[in-house]
Design a protein that fits this description.
Blueprint (H helix, E strand, L loop, with lengths): L1 E4 L2 H10 L2 E7 L5 E7 H6 L2 E4 L17 E5 L5 E2 L6 E9 L10 H16 L1 E15 L2 E2 L15 H13 L4 E6 L5 E6 L2 E2 H21 L3 E3 L13 E9 L8 E2 L2 E2 L1 H12 L1 H8 L5 H4 L12 E3 L6 E3 L12 E3 L8 H17 L17 H7 L7 H9 L2 H30 L9 H7 L3
Parallel strand pairs: 1-5, 2-7, 17-18
Antiparallel strand pairs: 1-4, 2-3, 5-7, 6-7, 8-9, 8-11, 8-12, 8-13, 8-14, 10-11, 14-19, 15-16, 18-19
Helix pairs in contact: 3-9, 4-5, 6-9, 7-9, 7-11, 11-12
């Protein structure tokens, strides 16, 4: 039984504006869950009970201790633009005692952001470039390519509609375009504090899928649905801002600051350990292969898309905000966990005063093989390899907490075992039927 706590203030706002409310929360692996509350129930009670069992959500609770509470986050309440009868609000999850539930990944990120702000006076800002495919049947919905014009890009109007809906949810789109692969699209939305960006990512996925169904298409955030085309990444841009001066701490008069370099060094040093949480599916590692602009080496560079970490060249110009872009993550990750582990790795670099390796100015994939292997460690090449790297890392367990860390590991071990049973013991580089069935709706 999951019980829902609704304060008088929330009740009044909801009752006056809608007939139904979807109370939404994110599970361990990043899927958004929802329960619908009726207006009549909200109007009569400040404390409600609903027949939802926390033990039925993998990684949450056991059957003998399944009661949890959902606590609405007021500033996330929005009325759906496609149905004015219904609103939605994101929720935090708490124990019946009122204590935070240790499996709540949204609270995990919120708590870690507060810790860094109190300890260092830093705020962590993020932005994400989330790619997705529109599929008609089992093939891409068009044959367009990167920045194609409208006569080839049949679904340019889809992106305009999507941008309009996102604005209704308070998400400000900046760039809309067709991506490299047929049927592949991207909308970048405005940079924000990390918790807000993570919420926006969850909203973005809902809106994309709903709109696609209106076009009789399937939208998928699966990292690599087609073996011959570029996969879909979720490149994550990051910066630290001083809470007292509001200055971006990755900037200085010469460009990238020493603090920014230490942050990069932390990401590189711990890249093998954190990748598991940023590329968390079997299919993720079929995207991280040579030839498709996806990184496979722990490296960094300025304007270099073959590296794991990239500093956009145009952001080095005067008065521009420098961001550190992490390029191995994909849309199947839980954004709350993803931002937590990225910030934790970057902060380890700052705490340990690490220096990054020499930046890469050449295309890594055209570099001499021996030189490349000597200088730049290879990232994990499969989910199970990435999982084993993370299991050995004690700082990640400390940051994520035992509940989330162990639950995530357990879920993904089970997932890889299922893949192995269905597809055979060898790790196939082809896209399998099992992956299509498992990840199409990610």
């Amino acid at each position: 039984m999951v019980r829902i706590m609704i304060t008088e203030e929330v009740t009044k706002e909801i009752v006056e504006s809608v007939k139904y409310v979807n109370l939404q929360f994110t599970d361990i692996v990043g899927h958004l869950r929802s329960i619908t509350v009726t207006k009549s129930e909200l109007g009569q009670n400040n404390f409600l009970e609903f027949g939802l069992d926390g033990s039925s959500i993998e990684g949450f609770t056991s059957v003998d201790n399944s009661d949890l509470l959902l606590k609405p986050v007021l500033d996330t309440f929005v009325v759906y633009p496609w149905d004015k009868r219904i609103g939605r609000v994101f929720c935090e999850i708490v124990e019946p005692s009122g204590e935070p539930f240790l499996g709540d990944t949204r609270f995990l990120l919120k708590r870690y952001l507060d810790k860094i702000e109190k300890e260092f006076n830093y705020k962590y800002f993020t932005g994400s470039e989330i790619e997705f495919f529109l599929i008609d049947g089992k093939k891409p919905s068009d044959n367009a390519s990167y920045f194609s014009s409208e006569y080839l890009d049949f679904h340019s109007y889809f992106r305009l509609e999507l941008a309009e809906i996102l604005e209704h949810f308070g998400i400000k789109p900046e760039f809309l375009h067709h991506e490299v692969a047929p049927g592949q699209h991207e909308i970048n939305f405005r940079y924000a504090e990390a918790l807000r960006t993570a919420d926006n990512i969850q909203t973005y996925k809902i809106v994309v899928r709903r709109l696609a169904s209106n076009f009789n298409l399937i939208a998928t955030f699966m990292p690599k649905p087609f073996i011959d085309f570029n996969g879909s990444g979720m490149h994550i841009h990051q910066s630290l801002v001083d809470t007292k001066t509001n200055n971006n701490l990755f900037n200085d008069e010469n460009g990238l600051s020493d603090l920014g370099k230490m942050f990069i060094a932390g990401l590189i040093k711990y890249s093998k350990e954190i990748l598991f949480f940023l590329a968390p599916t079997v299919n993720s590692y079929k995207r991280l292969v040579p030839g498709f602009e996806a990184p496979i080496y722990s490296s960094w560079g300025i304007g270099n898309r073959s590296t794991l970490i990239r500093i956009p060249t145009y952001k080095l110009r005067k008065n521009r905000t420098i961001t550190v872009e992490f390029r191995a993550s994909d849309p199947t990750c839980n954004p709350y966990i993803a931002f937590t582990v990225l910030l934790a790795a970057g902060m380890k670099g700052i705490r340990e005063k690490l220096e990054p390796p020499e930046q890469v100015s050449k295309n890594l994939f055209l570099m001499d093989v021996n030189e490349r292997r000597e200088k730049y460690p290879l990232l994990p090449t499969s989910l199970i390899e990435a999982l084993e790297n993370s299991k050995k890392n004690h700082f990640l367990k400390e940051v994520l907490g035992e509940h989330i860390f162990n639950s995530f590991i357990g879920i993904k071990e089970k997932e890889f075992q299922e893949y192995s049973l269905v597809e055979g013991k060898s790790y196939s580089k082809e896209i399998t039927k099992w992956e299509w069935k498992k990840y199409l709706n990610y």
